[in-house]
Amino acid sequence: MLEGEGPQPEYRFMYTVAIVNPRAGRRKTIQIPSATEILETQAPGHAIQLTRDAIRRGARTIMAVGGDGTINEVVNGFFEEEQLIATDTELAVIAKGTGSDFSRSLNRAVPSGERRMIDVMKVRYTAIDGVRPSRYSINVTSFGIGAEVAARVKRPAKGFGGRMAYLAGTLRTALSYSGQFVTIELNNRETIEEKILNVAAGNGQYQGAGMRVCPGAILDDGLFDVTVIRDISLGELARGLGQLYGGGIYSHPKVQAYRVNRLRAASEESVLVEIDGESVGKLPIEISIVPKAIRVWMP
């Protein structure tokens, strides 16, 4: 539910547009300034076009009101043909989703109301039909079981609570998931050939409604963190959940961590890919950093 009247927080804006996912976080009540133009999304991908149109009309503050998927679409709407439409546009994040993983990282890094230029990741992946599109990722892109879970956890299930839905989805998926062999190239230099459970490339730290998969990731350092979890048993996964949620994943003996600005990965198997919580395709994939691309804040 949206409320346009009553006491409002302080906002600085020229022409402000709120892109709202009406299906996200149904039980959460938020307040949007009465002078803001409110546009509701109608279907997946709609927020990208709404954002592009708003920026072309002169909007210089775009509010993303929803979960990680909405935020990702709004970020992609800042770009057209791999260029920013306007360099002086800022993104305001109002978390209203079940996962809200990017908001967790932003809360840790940027005090409320403070603006900061942060990085995004440019991801070229392989769609199921074999096409190689590009998409921007502001939080975490992963391949392996994380993408399998993203494909499995649908919106109706999330209504029971984001964290429990993702945790249950992870454990159910792990019952039948078999590790997959991948080849990963980091910074055009180091090559890793490994049977993996999951690989996460993080501009942000969190994935799956609070799993801290890249606890060392920094939003504005010009790099992204890569967490490689080698193939492990269901029992090992269950025992490691405390480290995963608590930020101690790097201490696990089957986890390797890297900090890079470019990654390529491929496999002879069909390895799924997710971007900011949404299943999009499969390997091969290329990820590169776009440093200090967007000014972001949380009201």
Map the helices and strands.
Blueprint: E1 2-3, E2 16-20, E3 30-31, E4 37-40, H1 46-56, E5 61-66, H2 68-77, E6 79-80, E7 83-84, E8 90-95, H3 101-109, E9 116-126, E10 134-137, E11 140-144, H4 145-152, H5 155-158, H6 162-176, E12 180-186, E13 190-202, E14 224-230, H7 234-239, H8 241-246, E15 255-260, E16 262-266, E17 272-275, E18 278-297
Parallel strand pairs: 1-3, 2-4, 2-5, 5-8, 8-18
Antiparallel strand pairs: 6-7, 9-10, 9-18, 11-13, 11-17, 12-13, 12-16, 13-14, 14-15, 16-18, 17-18
Please write the CATH class name of the largest domain: Mainly Beta
| Largest β-sheet summary | 6 strands, antiparallel, barrel
Strand order of the largest sheet: 11-13-12-16-18-17
Q: What is the count of DSSP helices, taking H or I runs of 4+ residues?
A: 8
Approximately what portion of the residues adopt beta-strand conformation?
A: 35-45%
Terminal Cα separation, in Å? 18 Å
Question: How many extended strands?
Answer: 18
CATH architecture of the largest domain: Sandwich
- Percent helix: 10-25%
Instruction: Give the helices and strands as they follow along the chain.
Output: EEEEHEHEEEHEEEHHHEEEHHEEEE
Q: Radius of gyration, Cα only, in angstroms?
A: 19 Å
Q: Can you walk through the features of this model?
A:
It is a single chain. 47% of the residues are buried. 23% of the residues lie in helices and 37% in strands. It has a 6-stranded antiparallel beta barrel. The chain folds into 2 domains: 2-97, Rossmann fold; 124-293, Tumour Suppressor Smad4 (Sandwich). It is α+β, with helices and mostly antiparallel strands and 299 residues long.
